[in-house]
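$ ./design --mode recover --in tokens.txt
reading tokens...
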């Protein structure tokens, strides 16, 4: 019995040469790999910028928290951030009792000094404001050298992070929580801390930083 044999290949030959399509595929794969690496590097750099922005926010939190433990003390070294201005404290200090010899003299003295006291009371300075405190903070060395990693400039304080405004990336937002009256539907209200706000009482604050897309990233809640 004869076993079946494989038909001869004849003149057909298998080519091992690479075609233009093969070279095109290799080029495409190299481009894809480079794009993946580039996207990874960019994502890493953006992530590091966000982390650096958070470090800026943490520095603000640390300073304000420490100041909150001392700024109600008399003679606090950073007068602009004290609970009350030194001028206001001086104006509220009791005046020395006048040395009056007779009731008639006392009446005359009181009549002359009363308008002066009323004028001084009307001109008494208002409590320190957040705007004045921030201006002083910006003059401190540790804040002068602070840099927004997205812009290379000092980080700005903004009322809130807004995703529709991408120029806010790396900015810092500080909000205040205020307790509402008993029986209200919500226990507290949250609003931006603006320059005109008085800082004569303890403030419950929330600090956030704006990421690349200007979305808020909460850093901490603290008392100032």
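writing sequence...
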């Amino acid at each position: 019995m004869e076993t079946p044999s494989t038909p001869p290949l004849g003149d057909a030959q298998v080519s091992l040469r690479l075609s233009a399509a093969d070279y095109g595929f290799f080029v495409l794969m190299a481009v894809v790999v480079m794009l993946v690496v580039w996207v990874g590097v960019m994502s890493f750099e953006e992530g590091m910028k966000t982390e650096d922005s958070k470090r800026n926010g943490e520095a603000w939190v640390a300073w304000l928290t420490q100041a909150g433990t001392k700024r109600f003390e008399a003679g606090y070294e950073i007068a602009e951030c004290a609970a009350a201005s030194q001028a206001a404290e001086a104006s509220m200090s009791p005046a020395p009792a006048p040395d009056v010899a007779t009731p008639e003299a006392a009446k005359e003295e009181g009549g002359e000094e009363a308008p002066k006291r009323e004028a001084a009371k009307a001109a008494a300075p208002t409590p320190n404001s957040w705007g004045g405190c921030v201006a002083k903070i910006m003059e401190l060395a540790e804040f002068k050298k602070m840099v927004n990693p997205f812009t290379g400039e000092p980080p700005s304080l903004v009322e809130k992070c807004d995703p529709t405004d991408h120029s806010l990336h790396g900015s810092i937002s500080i909000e205040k929580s205020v307790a509402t009256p008993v029986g209200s539907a919500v226990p507290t209200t949250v609003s931006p801390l603006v320059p005109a706000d008085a800082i004569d009482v303890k403030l419950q604050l929330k600090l956030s930083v704006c990421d690349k897309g200007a979305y808020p990233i909460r850093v901490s809640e603290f008392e100032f």
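exit 0
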